């Protein structure tokens, strides 16, 4: 029994032991495997394992070679100059190599998107508020007028019924009608007083509303032009010299058309400043050639051309005592004898509807189109010197002196604010134009044009910039902006007119030959004043070609 027990125990022990693990074989040659191949992840003998490891290192070298080619691609693309797409691709590749740069780019883009959306939200909010005020006021006036119409109909009906009752001798009916009207007189009087009050408010606000609506119309026109003319192409005309730069492309991908010479208007004396008036109704030229108000709608004297140009002469050479008023083709020339001191130089002109703003050293005189003085304004501010330039938008007129810009309200004639460019203490600011809630003002001292926000009074940029492609302006004398956002700068010493993007200063093209004076079509000898003509099929730019005693007119190609 003990023997059987030991045997049983031995058998039990041997049955509980794990089976021996078989030696793995090479998947290729059935030899004993020495390890798992890193590339194929299979068991292999020493011979085939070394081959697999060699394949892994070969793949590693191929990957490193691709990475080297990838990292060198940006440098090679930079060497292929003249191709804008290659430059963009190089920039993109540089961003790919630097994850931090990509994160910063994403963050900056997101912030820019938020700012743009915020600005559009603010614009929409103010437009909705303005719309609500205007439409609410007009709706109230309309309802009051309709109530008055009904009241007048009741009065007319009352008179007819009273006449009928008197003719019939019906005293009882006559008494009823009189008593009824007597009871209604209080309501009629209240209706008329309410209507008169609403009409008075409408009249008081109408001028401001018209200006704001005009700004909205211009804004709609700009937006419509930008969206519908997304395929603007640039014409390499003889008189408009396109600059070979990618800066001529705007941020939205559009290209600004250049302008070409249209015609000239010969004059008998050098001219300085220009202003364009689009509404000349109610003014005529008398037999002596002087602008005067029309006596009536039936006045048979020759009406002023519409639109027309107002031009001031170079005072120390011409000794003129009037402004020149002429049509764009030069066929009609008249005189505007303004109520100003003609011994003082004229520093600039600005026209808004039928008001002419004449800037002189000590004040701005506001006249109608015949020259009759309406008002005289002067920035009585300590440290504000002689007036050097003028400009304006629909709501305000701006005058400059030194490094300061004073703003007057066109509605109240009160001074609204004074902007001081403290960064430019020695600036000599001159004439101005407005664009996108900013003032664009030329600076003779620094040979620059500064962009200043009206609402925040901050200096946003000074052109020329790196995007401008210009070292500096050669004696900038005047500025003008058209509805497409093109900034025109006349260079008196450079004998040319530069066209830039008003938002970032990118140089688009040039009129004339920069640095060389001339007298042919599209050439200049000391260009001075600028004016933009809108409202026609094509915008036009008028340039006072001072040295050649003429005006030159350029049209969009």
UniProtKB/TrEMBL annotation:
<dbReference type="GO" id="GO:0061630">
    <property type="term" value="F:ubiquitin protein ligase activity"/>
</dbReference>
<keyword id="KW-0175">Coiled coil</keyword>
<dbReference type="GO" id="GO:0008270">
    <property type="term" value="F:zinc ion binding"/>
</dbReference>
<feature type="region of interest" description="Disordered">
    <location>
        <begin position="1"/>
        <end position="20"/>
    </location>
</feature>
<feature type="coiled-coil region">
    <location>
        <begin position="53"/>
        <end position="119"/>
    </location>
</feature>
<feature type="compositionally biased region" description="Low complexity">
    <location>
        <begin position="1"/>
        <end position="18"/>
    </location>
</feature>
<dbReference type="GO" id="GO:0000209">
    <property type="term" value="P:protein polyubiquitination"/>
</dbReference>
<keyword id="KW-0677">Repeat</keyword>
<dbReference type="InterPro" id="IPR050952">
    <property type="entry name" value="TRIM-NHL_E3_ligases"/>
</dbReference>
<feature type="repeat" description="NHL">
    <location>
        <begin position="511"/>
        <end position="557"/>
    </location>
</feature>
<dbReference type="InterPro" id="IPR011042">
    <property type="entry name" value="6-blade_b-propeller_TolB-like"/>
</dbReference>
<dbReference type="Pfam" id="PF01436">
    <property type="entry name" value="NHL"/>
</dbReference>
<dbReference type="GO" id="GO:0043161">
    <property type="term" value="P:proteasome-mediated ubiquitin-dependent protein catabolic process"/>
</dbReference>
<dbReference type="InterPro" id="IPR001258">
    <property type="entry name" value="NHL_repeat"/>
</dbReference>
<protein>
    <recommendedName>
        <fullName>B box-type domain-containing protein</fullName>
    </recommendedName>
</protein>
């Amino acid at each position: 029994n003990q023997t059987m027990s030991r045997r049983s125990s031995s058998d039990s022990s041997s049955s509980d032991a794990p089976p021996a693990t078989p030696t793995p074989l090479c998947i290729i040659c059935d030899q004993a495997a020495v390890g798992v191949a890193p590339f194929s992840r299979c068991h292999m003998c020493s011979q085939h394992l070394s081959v697999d490891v060699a394949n892994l290192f070969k793949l590693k070298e191929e990957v490193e070679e691709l990475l080297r080619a990838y990292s060198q691609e940006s440098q090679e693309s930079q060497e292929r100059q003249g191709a804008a797409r290659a430059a963009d691709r190089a920039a993109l590749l540089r961003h790919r190599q630097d994850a931090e740069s990509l994160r910063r780019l994403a963050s900056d883009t997101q912030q820019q998107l938020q700012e743009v959306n915020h600005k559009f939200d603010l614009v929409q909010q103010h437009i909705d508020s303005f719309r609500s005020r205007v439409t609410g006021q007009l709706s109230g006036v309309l309802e009051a007028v309709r109530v008055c119409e009904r009241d007048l109909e009741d009065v007319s009906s009352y008179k007819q019924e009273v006449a009928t009752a008197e003719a019939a001798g019906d005293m009882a009916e006559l008494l009823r009608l009189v008593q009824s009207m007597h009871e209604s007189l209080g309501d009629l009087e209240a209706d008329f007083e309410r209507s008169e009050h609403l009409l008075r408010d409408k009249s008081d606000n109408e001028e401001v509303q018209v200006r704001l609506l005009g700004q909205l119309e211009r804004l709609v026109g700009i937006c419509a032009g930008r969206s519908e003319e997304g395929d603007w192409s640039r014409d390499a005309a003889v008189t408009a010299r396109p600059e070979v730069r990618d800066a001529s492309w705007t941020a939205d991908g559009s290209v600004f058309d250049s302008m070409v010479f249209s015609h000239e208007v010969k004059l008998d004396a050098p001219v300085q400043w220009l202003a364009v008036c689009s509404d000349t109704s109610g003014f005529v030229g008398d037999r002596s050639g002087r602008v005067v108000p029309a006596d009536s709608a039936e006045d048979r004297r020759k009406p002023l051309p519409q639109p027309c140009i107002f031009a001031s002469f170079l005072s120390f050479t011409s000794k003129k005592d009037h402004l020149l008023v002429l049509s764009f083709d030069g066929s009609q020339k008249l005189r505007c004898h303004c109520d100003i001191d003609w011994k003082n130089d004229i520093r600039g002109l600005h026209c808004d509807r039928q008001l002419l703003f004449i800037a002189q050293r000590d004040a701005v005189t506001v006249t109608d189109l015949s020259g009759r003085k309406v008002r005289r304004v002067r920035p009585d501010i300590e440290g504000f010197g002689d007036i050097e330039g003028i400009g304006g938008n629909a709501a305000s007129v701006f005058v400059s002196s030194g490094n300061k810009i004073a703003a007057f309200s066109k509605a109240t004639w009160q001074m609204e604010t004074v902007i001081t460019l403290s960064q430019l203490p020695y600036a000599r600011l001159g004439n101005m134009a407005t664009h996108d809630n900013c003032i664009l003002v030329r600076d003779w001292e620094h040979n620059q044009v500064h962009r200043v926000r009206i609402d925040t009074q901050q200096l946003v940029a000074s052109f020329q910039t790196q995007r401008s492609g210009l070292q500096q302006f050669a004696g900038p004398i005047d500025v003008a902006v058209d509805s497409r956002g093109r900034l025109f700068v006349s260079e008196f010493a450079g004998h040319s007119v530069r066209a830039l993007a008003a938002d970032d200063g990118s140089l688009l093209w040039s009129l004339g030959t920069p640095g060389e004076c001339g007298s042919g079509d599209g050439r200049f000898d000391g260009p001075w004043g600028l004016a933009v003509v809108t409202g026609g099929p094509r915008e036009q730019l008028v340039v006072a070609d001072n040295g050649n005693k003429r005006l030159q007119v350029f049209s969009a190609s």
